[in-house]
Write a structure and sequence with these properties.
The protein is α/β, with parallel strands linked by helices. The protein is built from 18 helices and 10 strands. Strands 1, 4, 5, 6, 7, 8, 9 and 10 form an 8-stranded mixed β-sheet that branches. Strands 2-3 form a two-stranded antiparallel sheet. Strand 2 (104-107) and strand 3 form a beta hairpin. Helix 3 (86-101) runs parallel beside helix 4 (126-137) and helix 3 (86-101) packs across helix 17 (436-452).
């Protein structure tokens, strides 16, 4: 069984291996805290990777409109949302991609893989490693991503880099060294222009504006606020921003250039803002980028701070457009017949061991507990909100001649029926160093959860009988 099995890496029983790995992680964390304390007075400066958009390039931008007008997007809007959660999230996202690859469907009389119908992947933190790799390399992800990332001790490599004394007093920050490492093992200096392949989904990598708390997507629809072109921006830097836990990693910095039209909400968006404080705050935050003097440099950190589910990217752009119909008009796409959102939620249920003893919890345990409480409450609110809006959008856009069918598919540990397996999965840590057994269980469970979801089964049945 999962709980009593031996870990192939050490041959130790699971309980002893868990203790060993916990000691290793706590040791790494304490060493990292010590280095951060010693170097807290040393300034490091973010490397500016985005350039001002001064060209008259007429090529297709890396924007929602470009994908909306592609041939592949004619009948489907199929969005995958990959949450944060370290390698745990990356492995679950990978398992979902595998299951969609192996699910045949008939579309317009042609036999296809359901994976080929995906139009967008919105991701945060750990999930962004999987989405970016698939966006760049397509099916190659099924050949080498497990070895190149999922089964690699990424956390150990990053910690070792931080602990090298030669790096303590340089201008290059911890995040810049992480970007170098991500390029070495995964992205190889690729830019967003390299992800513009016909037939592949649009990859939307999300981060958080540290100063204003704005959820930000690395797509041209947002980059134009900086008078910059995201096609030239390094993928590794966007992924690093999406997963840059504050304090542990430095923010990723971009420059807010002058010289382009300012952002002003249209009347429809302003009407939505008058009804929703959340929409009003979002529009206020986006308008702040008009201030090229006081907001000359923008600092991005972990996307999980503003949306750990990767779900709000699409609902936000719909709100900025002024509603679902206005979004369809703005992008110039045809009305789809199916709108599918598949949410991969890698968050774990709380099983705090601190409640079994009077022993004071460690600093790491306390920080994890505080983060988990916030994430669980915000994640639940996000899922409820997106479910509601999905039904509202489908109803508003549907006509008597053209009905739009919505599907919300959710992959989460809460749906695991085997209690031993559920306990095992919920004890997989939020780290970038998992055992082979943990990775295997995550991939297999994600596949089974997708397959068993009632909305997923309904989607397959509807496509078969259409």
């Amino acid at each position: 069984m999962y709980i009593q099995a031996e870990y192939p890496s050490t041959g130790l029983p699971a309980s002893r291996e868990n203790q060993r790995r916990s000691l290793v992680r706590n040791g790494r964390f304490l060493c990292l805290c010590l280095v951060l304390l010693l170097t807290s007075g040393c300034a490091s400066y973010g490397v500016i990777e985005n350039k001002p958009d001064t060209t008259a390039d007429t090529g297709k931008p890396y924007s929602l409109k470009t994908w909306a007008q592609s041939e592949e997007a004619a009948d489907f809007i199929f969005i995958l949302a990959f949450s944060g959660g370290g390698t745990r999230a990356a492995a679950m996202a990978y398992g979902v991609l595998e299951e969609l690859r192996d699910t045949p469907v008939t579309v317009d009389g042609r036999q296809r893989r359901l994976l080929d119908e995906v139009t967008h992947i919105s991701s945060v933190s750990g999930g962004s490693f999987t989405s970016a790799y698939y966006g760049l390399y397509g099916d190659r992800i099924f050949e080498d991503f497990e070895d190149e990332f999922l089964r690699k001790d990424v956390e150990g490599a990053l910690t070792a880099s931080v602990l090298r004394p030669i790096h303590w007093f340089t201008r290059k920050g911890r995040t810049d060294r992480a970007i170098d490492y991500y390029n070495k093992i995964l992205f190889h200096d690729a830019t967003f222009a390299d992800m513009m392949h016909p037939g592949r989904p649009m990859i939307i990598i999300n981060a958080s504006d540290l100063a204003w708390g704005i959820r930000f997507s690395f797509i041209q629809d947002y980059f134009k606020l900086f008078c910059s072109d995201v096609r030239d921006y390094p993928v590794a830097s966007a992924v690093a921003a999406s997963s840059a836990v504050p304090v542990v990693f430095n923010p990723v910095v971009v420059e807010n250039y002058p010289g382009c039209p300012e952002f002003h909400p249209n009347p429809q968006a302003q009407a939505l803002a008058n009804q929703s404080t959340e929409v009003a705050e979002m529009l206020k935050g986006l308008s702040s980028y008009n201030d090229k003097t006081n907001r000359k440099f923008i600092h991005f950190v972990d996307g999980g701070i503003t949306d750990n589910m990767g779900l709000r990217a699409m609902s936000d752009v719909v709100a900025v457009a002024g509603g679902a119909q206005e979004m369809i008009n703005k992008t110039g796409r045809k009305l789809p017949s199916h709108v599918v959102i598949l949410s991969v939620n890698a968050s774990t249920e709380r099983h705090p061991e601190m409640d079994t003893s009077t022993k004071q919890p460690s600093m790491l345990a306390s920080m994890n507990a505080m983060t988990d409480v916030q994430l669980h409450r915000y994640n639940a609110a996000t899922v409820d909100s997106v479910r509601k809006y999905l039904d509202v959008w489908a109803t508003k856009l549907s006509t008597s001649e053209h009905k739009i069918t919505p599907y919300f598919i959710e992959v989460t540990f809460e749906q695991v029926s085997d209690e031993q397996l559920k306990l095992f999965l919920n004890k997989v840590p939020t780290s970038f160093d998992l055992t082979d057994q943990e990775v295997d269980a995550l991939i297999k469970s994600a596949r089974e959860l997708v397959r068993a979801d009632p909305e997923f089964q309904k989607l397959i049945k509807d496509l078969a009988t259409r």
